[in-house]
Prior knowledge:
The protein has no helices and 11 strands. It is mainly beta. The strands form 2 sheets. Strands 2, 4, 5, 6, 9, 10 and 11 form a 7-stranded mixed beta sheet that branches. Strands 1-3-8-7 form a 4-stranded antiparallel beta sheet, with no helix packed on it.
Amino acid sequence: QVQLVESGGGLVQAGGSLRLSCAASGTIFGINAMGWYRQAPGKQRELVANILSGGSTNYIDSVKGRFTISRDNAKNTVYLQMNSLKPEDTAVYYCNVLAGRWSEAYWGKGTLVTVSS
């Protein structure tokens, strides 16, 4: 079983920065991708960024140039550096891992990011 523990959320003023971390533990057979989703009140959950096993990254258009995703393979940890935060970035951010032969999805419990104007 895989457990994901997120940290780094909080309250920040617009223009500020936060760094989210997500550490995966447990029995993990081949991580195919690690990423971050977010869900704002009244909205659907959306993919913010992910990083594949080969190192390639993907970002939603609204965060390109402001957010950077990275991973430490030795620690099974993924990071999301968020700069120039905007009030519209306010959401619960969820860590996601796809692992195993069938890319089974695992989710963290979420960490709240609040950006004040």
